[in-house]
Write a structure and sequence with these properties.
The complex is a heterodimer of chains A (161) and B (752). Chain A has 161 residues and is α+β, with helices and mostly antiparallel strands. Chain A is 33% helix and 14% strand. Chain A has 6 helices and 5 strands, in the order ββαβββααααα. The longest helix of chain B is centred in the N-terminal third of the chain and has 28 residues. The chains are: A alpha+beta (161), B alpha/beta (752).
């Protein structure tokens, strides 16, 4: 079957089985491997993408469900070579170790900040709690989101003593 | 970096390195359960045609540091094959080579910084090629915190030598002093403007088409006081590729010729053997390649959904011979107790492979010491199996070209995987190239090559490249586990509150840190084998997550029995200055003594402390917990850790490692536990196996103790060992209930 949607601002048409997930289609058919497989069950959010601005697990999203909708993946976040502020904040805060969870983390943060440009820590934790980082770099990720939310001061860490 | 891009002709620097052996570099104290069997044969393959790949230029090789006692014991070092460390090409590109992998611990950044330091160039002027068996030296596995003490010094020596060679060549051309020259923006530059020569031009004129140079023994590197790059928080290499999704992890590798996706049919229960299967229903699906070879049944198809559908189509007709009895997580403790090889276990932390664990010790007489003690305490600790659960499951992409095979896979041991793959296909390792793109997590869990072999088998049948990624359920069920263990402790204290006897027996989980760092006259520490019902292997910091936990909890019980404060009790028995120093720093920063006073008599809050040393680094951890007596739960209020690993090479990355260890350790401390029965893992998902999440993150205060007078050692493991006992001891302080298990729970409390 043929399905049409907007992917990173481009009209996209794909011919595939209706049971397939958005995650698989992105990774296997469209070559967009920035969206990661972590569990396939919606438990880890490594596969997070934005559908009409909402952060959703693409492994739990069937292709027919995104027809006519606007999808943004990690590849579509930067404007040319200009990184999105959240991406810059992740680099500034060193908010990555292996980095495999980072695309999902960044997109969850983008969805949060588009709704609430100045979230407190509780709002950040609520919004990001579904995203697992097994390197357990939550501290730096939290600092990155604070930076992206304009709270650079509270994001500062004490230096080595 | 594009995997296929190769540097142009130029100069290369090679290192002759003692062969550390596949096992030798894995860890300081290999556990008996380390899945690192040596290959049955070791052929002297001819040295690879390095130049053919990297192009002409200067290649500098290094003869490595003296073998460690561990390496000698394991038989490494009989040959000293040349290991090329640096190539400077005709295009001026500086390529540094290492067999180590990047799994998030920051080795790419660190090795690049080390090379930049010695070459006197900016880190971004260096291209670091990691873990490509066709190009990089066999640096052993990436484990045991060995990159910093073993690989970094070799890279530094090679780079220091290469710099001298380049500057000497230019100095000779210009008839000036070497010390007046430097390397800048791809050029050697000298005292006056006409002294400027592109590296590539210099290399070709001074060293010709091909020139291998060996680093002279005793080549010195920059002292800590001269460091410009090391010692600073060099930004993480590849960060931009990570945040844009451009970096290709092993599971992201696709080949230009078109890539199929794989799925594997797993047995219904552990140990089940395939009796028969009819592949016809799978083969009937358009586009599916079905393989049945021995015990392996797998499928490749244009989409992973189709491959999984093929597996499902044959699952019902597969006949399996299943084992009649299975152990379970509930029956585990009796099984370990009954099968413990007590008589054979004196020093055998290494078990069947015949090595010796560092930990096993005996001094004085434990029996006499216990008999002379005023009070004696005995306890048994239960340590659950846990999984590493890296965010990226095992993944590989395999491509055949005639008899030649290339596999991109996530492993911490590319050279071992190369021989495993070669053995599986009964071919020479020469025909197999293993490339490890920077990978999505390891934690000691990715030492083996199953997924590489599976992808290669499917690719062989399909005649096309195949990408295979294990599902999360497969990762939870079929990857090896951190061993479960029973730990028996006995201790005796005299009338002055001094430890006089200490006996520590680890059943099944391994020998790391069984030896106590405390001053006790009569000690017996040992690690003994038992029958593990699950497939087990290494984990971050090996068995010390279990042994330090048991020891530090037991110590608090003994202190309480002797009526001594836990910190004071540790001070009484600790003469190791470095361990003592981190203990004092953590206690001071956390306000341990103040909090103990404030919380004395509190029925809801308590503070705990624990310390340990592994891999020549030192950690002390403090935690406060608060209990909810109505609900029978506890939560961690805050954590403080002090860590020392010699001279700090990258403060930001070190801090990230310490924090990552603490939070990962929180998982094992509070909730992680593999539940199994009937030959199946019963909680094989992130929904049922609870790893730490954002909301579990307590305030964490980290003190990095920078000992610039001491050599740098690794830091990715040791900081994990203190967190669980610190929490258990805080819970003990709050409730009087001692913890005897990991994850932590007492009669009345478990993590909320």
């Amino acid at each position: 079957m043929r399905f049409e949607f907007t992917l990173n601002d481009a009209r996209t048409s794909i011919d595939c089985d209706e049971k397939r997930t958005l995650l698989e289609v992105l990774r296997e058919d469209l070559g967009l491997t920035g969206t990661k497989y972590g569990c396939g069950e919606g438990d880890c959010r490594a596969c997070t993408v934005l559908v009409d601005g909402e952060a959703v697990p693409s492994c739990q999203t069937r292709i027919p469900d995104v027809v006519g909708r606007r999808i943004r993946t990690i590849e579509g976040l930067a404007k040319g070579s200009e990184l999105h502020p959240v991406q810059k904040a992740f680099i500034e805060a060193d908010a990555m170790q292996c980095g495999y969870c980072v695309p999902g983390m960044v997109l969850s943060a983008v969805a949060l900040l588009e709704k609430d440009p100045a979230p407190g820590d509780d709002a950040i934790v609520d919004a990001m709690d579904g995203n697992i980082c097994r390197c357990c770099g939550y501290g730096n990720i939290l600092r990155a989101v604070r930076i992206a939310a304009g709270r650079r001061e509270s994001a500062r860490k004490e230096e080595t003593r | 970096m594009t995997l296929d891009r190769r540097p142009e002709p130029g100069l290369r620097v090679v290192e002759t390195q003692p062969r550390v052996g596949r096992a030798g570099d894995c860890s300081l104290e290999p556990e008996r359960y380390e899945l690192d069997e040596r290959p049955a044969y070791r052929f002297e393959l001819e040295r690879r045609e390095f130049i053919a790949i990297l192009g002409a230029g200067l290649v500098v090789s290094v003869r490595g540091a003296p073998l460690s006692a561990q390496d000698r014991r394991r038989g490494g070092g009989d040959g000293s094959p040349v290991s090329e460390r640096i190539h400077v090409g005709a295009d001026g590109v500086i390529t540094v080579l290492t067999g180590k992998v990047e799994v998030g611990q920051g080795s790419r950044t660190q090795i690049t910084a080390a090379a930049a330091e010695e070459l006197g160039v900016a880190p971004d002027a260096i291209r670091l090629v990691m873990a490509d068996t066709e190009l990089t030296p066999d640096d052993g596995g990436t484990s045991g915190s060995r990159t910093t003490p073993s690989t970094v010094p070799q890279v530094r020596r090679a780079c220091a030598a290469a710099r001298r060679m380049l500057l000497d060549a230019a100095a000779e051309q210009w008839k000036v002093e070497r010390d007046s020259l430097s390397i800048r923006d791809g050029h050697v530059v000298g005292p006056s403007p006409e002294h400027k020569l592109a590296l590539g031009v210099l290399v070709m004129s001074a060293f010709g088409e091909r020139n291998d140079r060996e680093v002279e023994p005793g080549t010195s590197v920059r002292g800590v006081e001269e460091w410009k790059v090391l010692g600073t928080s060099v930004p993480r290499a590849g960060a931009r590729e990570i945040v844009t999704g451009a970096h290709r992890y092993p599971s992201d590798i696709r080949r230009p010729t078109g890539t199929l996706f794989g799925a594997v049919l797993r047995p219904p229960t552990f140990g089940a053997r395939l009796e028969s299967i009819d592949l016809a229903p799978a083969k009937a699906i358009d586009g599916v390649v079905a393989v049945h070879d021995g015990e392996f049944v797998g499928f490749a198809a244009p989409t992973s959904a189709l491959a999984r559908r093929a597996a499902a189509a044959v699952a019902s007709n597969a006949r399996w011979i299943e084992e009649s009895t299975h152990s379970s997580s509930d029956a585990l403790w009796d099984l370990l107790r009954e099968t413990a090889e007590r008589r054979s276990g004196g020093g055998g932390a290494d078990g069947p492979r015949g090595g010796r664990g560092r930990g096993s010790t005996e001094r004085g007489s434990v029996e006499d010491g216990l008999a002379a003690s005023k009070s004696v305490l005995r306890a048994e600790y239960r340590i659950a199996y846990i999984q590493h659960a890296p965010m990226e499951p095992r993944a590989a992409c395999a491509e055949w070209n005639g008899d030649g095979l290339t596999v991109w896979t996530g492993t911490q041991n590319p050279d071992r995987v190369r021989s495993q793959v070669a053995e599986a296909f009964r071919t020479s390792a020469r025909n197999v190239r293993v490339i490890v793109p920077d990978t999505g997590g390891g934690f000691g869990g990715k030492h083996t090559g199953e997924v590489a072999i599976e992808a290669a088998r499917l690719a062989r049948a399909a005649g096309k490249p195949v990408s295979l990624t294990w599902t999360r359920e497969e990762e939870f069920s079929w990857a090896y586990f951190r061993p479960a263990g029973l730990i028996e402790l006995a201790g005796g204290v005299d009338g002055e509150g001094r430890l006089v006897a200490w006996e520590h027996t680890n059943i099944n989980s391994g020998g790391s840190a069984v030896a106590t760092p405390y001053d006790v006259p009569n000690v017996r520490a040992r690690s003994i084998n038992a029958r593990s019902p699950l497939r087990q292997g290494s984990y971050r910091a090996l068995a010390s997550t279990a042994n330090v936990f048991a020891r530090e909890c037991f110590l608090d019980e003994l202190a309480a029995q002797a009526g001594v404060d836990p910190l004071a009790f540790r001070r009484m028995h600790l003469s190791d200055a470095r361990l003592r120093a981190v203990l004092e720093r953590a206690a001071e920063r956390f306000g341990f003594e103040r909090r103990r006073k404030e919380l004395e008599g509190s029925k809801t809050r308590g503070a705990g402390i624990a310390c340990g040393t592994e891999k020549a680094s030192f950690v002390a951890t403090c935690a406060e917990v608060e209990v909810d007596r109505e609900r029978g739960t506890f939560r961690v209020v805050d954590i403080c850790a002090a860590f020392e690993c010699g001279a700090v090479q990258n403060p930001a990355n070190l801090r990230a490692q310490v924090e990552g260890c603490i939070v990962q350790g929180l998982g094992g401390a509070l909730r992680e536990e593999i539940r199994f029965s009937g030959g199946k893992v019963r909680n094989a998902s992130f929904a049922r196996y609870r790893v730490p999440r954002f909301r579990d993150l307590p305030p964490i205060d980290i003190v990095l103790v920078d000992r610039r007078d001491l050599p740098s050692v690794g830091a990715g493991e040791t900081p994990i060992v203190g967190i669980a006992p610190a929490i258990a001891n805080a819970l003990f302080a709050a409730t009087g209930e001692a913890t005897r298990s990991l994850p932590i729970h007492t009669a009345g409390f478990r993590a909320g």
